[in-house]
Design goal:
about 35% helix; four-stranded antiparallel sheet; binds nickel (II) ion; alpha/beta; Aminopeptidase; about 400 residues; 2 domains
């Protein structure tokens, strides 16, 4: 049972062509000029005015319903691709070496365009829909850049919604959960500054390698001894660099890694304890230490009201048995989190299937996101677009007080 909108099903071939064109021409963070132009031209051809240049290459389509004095909501898609060599050899494979739509943002754009085309032709909702096409989701914070350029002040809205495809969830299924759904993402670099010496005369130097090892061990105790056991967090040291050869104690040792949490409180605790442990070890052994801690993306936290609403929309679209309404959160990160810090809203996963949709000629390997043989599943186009349309129609049909 899936209640797709028939007119969308009728033009799904065109959506597929749009999606494959975007796939063939991937553009990296803040370079989405062709993508942005393509989207703007399509929106304008359907009678939707476009405001460009938010967050450099980002744009907002302004879709007015039958009563423009009504409330407004935002629907968001991301446009950027990844610096990855595509392994697929099908006709719509990337024409740009080393760049690839390996996260399905081509599909996210096409699904939102499908909804835009339907809604522009029907406009039987009382309010305004802002179609948000954001750049630079992959690590550069394009969502934050659009907010800084006035996304929510120039386009006041009462709620904002986002959607991402998810390989491994069956086609026709959705997953969502109230509260934290994706983690905060944070990078750190710890530099231990000792004093180099001959390796046979360590008493004449201060060995930064030994101190770095002490710090690395100590950092894991934050997770087991400082944060509450029921709070979730990851701290991974992913690189340790020091030295050049066997008989020299180096001057310096550098460690880098990532911290992931579901709340800012736990993040604050971890960052503060990391600084204390690093400084304490350096003091104990007579070295100096620098801790550079960069907060990249905050946790993505779905708001309870909008999430309950979205869950209802999904259940009536595909049936309750195909909606995982309390899905397990992931420690991955997503910059839609910035928008959910500013506005109520909800982010959902749409199942991309197990990869069997890919045409012959694709590369080896599983169909995970960020894999060189990934491809967005075109079967989702009418489903995702229908979800957006139903969300809009149901949102503005809600009873309102005052
Ligand atoms: Ni993505």
């Amino acid at each position: 049972m899936t209640n797709l909108y028939e007119p969308i099903v009728a033009f799904q071939g065109e959506l597929k062509a749009i999606r494959r064109d975007l796939h063939a021409h991937p553009e990296l963070c803040f370079e989405e000029h062709r993508t942005s132009d393509t989207i703007a031209r399509l929106l304008e051809s359907w009678g939707i005015p476009v405001v460009r240049g938010l967050g450099k290459t980002g744009l907002v389509g302004v879709l007015e319903g039958k009563d423009t004095n009504g409330p407004a909501i935002g629907l968001r898609a991301d446009m950027d691709a990844l610096p990855l060599q595509e392994l697929n050899s099908f006709a719509h494979a990337s024409v740009h070496p080393g760049k690839m739509h390996a996260c399905g943002h081509d599909g996210h754009c096409a699904m939102l365009l499908g909804a835009a085309r339907y809604l522009a032709a029907h406009r039987d909702f009382s309010g305004t829909v802002y179609l948000i096409f954001q750049p630079a989701e992959e690590g550069e914070g394009g969502g934050r850049a659009m907010i800084e350029d006035g996304l929510f002040t120039r386009f006041p809205m009462e709620a904002v919604f986002g959607m991402h495809n998810w390989p491994g969830i069956p086609v026709g299924h959705f997953a969502v959960t109230p509260g934290p759904m994706m983690a905060s993402s944070n990078d750190f670099r710890i530099t231990v500054k000792g004093k180099g010496s001959h390796a046979a005369l360590p008493h004449l130097g201060t060995d930064p390698v030994m101190i770095a090892v002490q710090i690395a061990q100590g950092l894991q105790t934050i997770l087991t001894r400082n944060k509450k056991p029921i709070d979730t967090a990851v701290l991974s040291i992913t690189q340790i660099h020091a030295g050049t050869t066997t008989n020299i104690v180096p001057d310096e040792a550098v460690m880098v890694g990532t911290v992931r949490t579901f709340t800012i409180e736990v993040l604050d605790l971890i960052e503060s304890r990391m600084r204390d442990i690093a400084q304490g070890a350096a003091l104990a052994y007579g070295a100096q230490v620098e801790v550079d801690f960069q907060r990249k993306y905050p946790p993505l936290v779905n708001h309870p009201g909008p999430t309950k609403f979205v869950t209802g929309v999904l259940q009536s679209l595909v049936g309750a048995e195909r909606v995982d309404a309390q899905t397990e959160p992931t420690m991955g990160a997503e910059d839609f989190a910035f928008m959910l810090q500013e506005k109520p809203g909800c982010y959902v996963f749409i199942g991309n299937g197990d990869g069997a949709h890919r045409e012959a000629g694709h590369g080896l390997g599983p169909c995970t996101l960020h894999n060189g043989s990934y491809d967005f599943n075109d079967e989702l186009l009418p489903l995702g677009a229908s979800f957006w349309v139903k969300l809009v129609n149901d949102w503005f049909a809600q009873p309102r007080s005052g």
